[in-house]
Amino acid sequence: MDNTPVIGVLALQGDVREHLIALAAADAVARPVRRPEELAEVDALVIPGGESTTMSKLAVLFGMLEPLRERVRGGMPVYGTCAGMIMLADKLLDGREDQETLGGIDMIVRRNAFGRQNESFEASIDFAGIDGGPVEGVFIRAPWVESVGAEVRVLATYDGHTVAVRQGNVLATSFHPELTGDDRVHAYFVDMVRTGL
Ligand code: GLN
């Protein structure tokens, strides 16, 4: 069996290109996904950083909201960074009233949680399951995870706040590994996808 997974990057808005590059570096076939037909052709999906309210609006506009929810419910592996983490939250705090999420992780995420104190910063993050030392976390108006359900594994914290989680096939980080040139978190996700294929 060809064990190279095809991983889409949701390309409605956000830092799509950086994820495509990081996924390719982690030995996946990576392609942008904008339409339901494109979503149907990938094994897994990355939801990039950007602006979750805009992403939510565009997902509705492009007819992607229900197809995305369906694939997530169906067990497709997904990785969301920052705005992508927000999209994967079952519950959201400080979202806009009309803001939709896909859900997928039994967690409550607070939008812009770090942003109010500190617009943007970097920190070394110990990431459970990733060897070779801490990963560099780039936080940009980042959310944090306020609480998680019993099925959710916390993979990393920063300053007492949960910043990386995994539930089954669904992974989310508050920060942006795609902006650092360190592809270990993407490699971790590609491994998750490969193991499930
Ligand atoms: N604060 C943004 C939002 O609410 C997320 C920021 C980011 O993705 N870097 O969507």
What does this structure look like?
With 197 residues, the chain is of the alpha/beta class. It has one domain (6-195): Class I glutamine amidotransferase (GATase) domain (Rossmann fold, 3-Layer(aba) Sandwich). The chain is built from six helices and twelve strands. The chain has helices at 16-25, 36-40, 52-61, 65-73, 83-87, 184-196; strands at residues 6-10, 29-33, 44-47, 78-81, 89-93, 105-110, 120-125, 135-140, 144-148, 153-158, 161-167, 170-173. The longest helix has 13 residues, at 184-196. The mean pLDDT is 96. Residues 49-52, 82-83, 86, 111-112, 115, 140-141 line the site of glutamine (GLN). Glutamine is lined by residues 49-52, 82-83, 86, 111-112, 115, 140-141.
Write the layout of secondary structure elements.
Blueprint: E1 6-10, H1 16-25, E2 29-33, H2 36-40, E3 44-47, H3 52-61, H4 65-73, E4 78-81, H5 83-87, E5 89-93, E6 105-110, E7 120-125, E8 135-140, E9 144-148, E10 153-158, E11 161-167, E12 170-173, H6 184-196
Parallel strand pairs: 1-2, 1-3, 3-4, 4-12, 5-6
Antiparallel strand pairs: 6-9, 7-8, 10-11, 11-12
Bound molecules: glutamine.
